[in-house]
Write a structure and sequence with these properties.
85 residues
Amino acid sequence: MFRSYIFGSITNKKIAFLISSLLFALVHTGFSWYLLPYLILSFIITWVYSKRNNFIESAIVHSSVNLFSGSAIKLLDTFFKLLPY
């Protein structure tokens, strides 16, 4: 949805890149500390999509991340617990 519909419907590709990436990150995290890592991931997935305009390749990247996300989430959770906030 974020890559094919939102990115594809905005004519300015730089703005499309930013909006679709930000919306992806916000939907996945809300306004939490996890927004920044998801935003970086979203930039990477959107960049993959924008280079070849191929949804399948960006879906493979996203699926690969999901496959390894359990370990990554545990690592991020440990990191954010160490922050003094």
